[in-house]
Each structure stands twice: as structure tokens, then as C-alpha cells.
Amino acid sequence: MTSTTRLPATGDRVPHPARGPRPTPDAVAHWRRVRRFARTLREDLDAARRRDPAARSGVEVALAYPGLHAVWVHRVAHRMWREPALRLPARLLSQVSRAVTGVEIHPGATIGRRLFIDHGMGVVIGETAVVGDDVVLFHGATLGGKTMKRGKRHPTVGDRVVVGAGAKVLGPVWIGDDAQVGANAVVLKDVPPGSVAVGVPAKIRQKPSTAPPEPEVDDPAIYI
Ligand SMILES: CC(C)(COP(=O)(O)OP(=O)(O)OC[C@H]1O[C@@H](n2cnc3c(N)ncnc32)[C@H](O)[C@@H]1OP(=O)(O)O)[C@@H](O)C(=O)NCCC(=O)NCCS
């Protein structure tokens, strides 16, 4: 349907000269998707800027952070991967990204919002890995498989998890929300939410509580 305007002189309705025909529902849905996608990319940039104390401006982060570039390319490659006919181009795109950034993310991997890959180089994320929101991966972190069997063979990482530099998380293990994997750890078993996994093979430690210590009560009555 064309949008119209009323002529002041006659009161007749005529097609609006400036607006032209109304966009179709398909076009509206398409633009909504584009805007949502642009918002996701913007969030990735803001997350990198917030998380790296060395970042000085959005432009610097957009131009000089290979981890961010790898995440951006992955978001495109993952969309392509969902179309069976585009799987080969998606794979090639992810390999170009790997050559440029040093980060290999399989286009089939499911990545949540605001993933930050610090320093980039050497990060590997396998095809069936699932990564939650607000996750941080340092360089050399691997979310890899233990066997060559098809099917779910890579880790599932919860929200707000930190995986330290050089850490290997192998197999279809689960890393709970807010957990931390220490630098160079090799994780082969599930890590409960909020805990810390360090060492080879990784041992689980509970994070010390962040609650402030109870104030000491100095009640004169106890000296009586
Ligand atoms: C695991 C980690 C998150 C723990 O940090 P934390 O909560 O401050 O813990 P602490 O430093 O108090 O260490 C707690 C214990 O774990 C040990 N530990 C910490 N990190 C370890 C690691 N990567 N490997 C082995 N043991 C480690 C400590 O020696 C300490 O042991 P103790 O209790 O026997 O003395 C942190 O040490 C880490 O490895 N972060 C990754 C950061 C990273 O990769 N940075 C790269 C920047 S370029």
C-alpha cells in the first residue's frame, strides 16, 4: 500500500511525494535483522574496550584487535554455515580470518554475545563448541575435541567464564557460569559454576568468597 497525504486545497488524498511506496514486510524484517546484527557487532567492540585496560578508544579497538576481528568474521561465517549451500564458503572465510588474526573459530561453533578474545593468536574453537555470553578467552586457549568421532565433541562454556592463556579445555565438558580456567590448565572434566580450575590435569578449587569479612564485634560484656 502506498502512503498518502491530503491536499490542503481540495482535501483529496494523493500519494505522498516524499515517502514513496511503503516497504514490504519482508524488507522491514530484513532491516530489523541488519540492525540487530550491527548492534551485536557494536556490543563486541564495547566489550573489548571495557575489558582491556590498555584500550584507549573505540577506533583503536576496531582497527587493532585481532581477537575482535575474528569474532566479527565468525558472526558472518556462522550465518553462512546455517545455509547448507554456503558451508564451503563459510569454511574458507574462517580460514582467511585464521590466516589474518591467528584465531581459528569453526563456523559451526555457537558463540554468545560480547565474547572477548584478548591478544588473539593461537585460540582454537571447535565446531560443536558452545560459548556463553561475556566470556573472555586469552591467547592460546583451546576449546577442542578429545576424539575424532562426529557429534558433540567440544566444550560448552557458560556465561562470564574466563579461560586463561594457553589453557586447553578438551572434550564435551561443561564449564559452569562464572568459572575461571587458569593459564596453561588442561581441563578434562566438568568445572562447577563459580570455581577455578588450575593445573594439568586441572584440579577444581572453590573461589574464595568475595563477601566482605564479618566485622569483629568488640562487646565489652564479654570481658566481664
Ligand atoms: C586461575 C586464576 C584465574 C586464579 O586467580 P586467583 O583467583 O587470583 O587465584 P590465586 O592467584 O590466588 O591462586 C590460587 C591458587 O591457584 C594457583 N594458581 C593460580 N593460577 C594458576 C595456574 N595458572 N596454574 C596453576 N596454579 C595456579 C596459585 O598458585 C594458588 O595456589 P595456592 O592456593 O596453593 O597458593 C589466575 O591465576 C589465572 O591463571 N588467570 C589467567 C590469566 C591469564 O591467562 N592472563 C594472560 C594475560 S596476557
From TrEMBL:
Pathway involvement of the protein, from the record:
Amino-acid biosynthesis; L-cysteine biosynthesis; L-cysteine from L-serine: step 1/2
Catalytic activity annotation: L-serine + acetyl-CoA = O-acetyl-L-serine + CoA
What are the start and end residues of every segment in region (Disordered)? 1-26
Q: Which PROSITE patterns match?
A: HEXAPEP_TRANSFERASES
Spell out the Gene3D superfamilies in the cross-references: Hexapeptide repeat proteins, serine acetyltransferase, domain 1
In terms of InterPro entries, this protein maps to: Hexapep, Hexapep_transf_CS, LbH_SAT, Ser_AcTrfase_N_sf, Ser_O-AcTrfase, Serine_acetyltransferase, Trimer_LpxA-like_sf
UniProt keyword list: Acyltransferase, Amino-acid biosynthesis, Cysteine biosynthesis, Repeat, Transferase
GO biological process: one example: cysteine biosynthetic process from serine
Q: Name one GO molecular function term.
A: serine O-acetyltransferase activity
EC number in record:
2.3.1.30
State the source organism's domain of life.
Bacteria
How is this protein annotated for GO cellular component? cytoplasm
Q: Which family does it belong to?
A: Belongs to the transferase hexapeptide repeat family.
- Name this protein carries in UniProt: Serine acetyltransferase
Q: What is the lineage of its organism?
A: Bacteria, Bacillati, Actinomycetota, Actinomycetes, Micrococcales
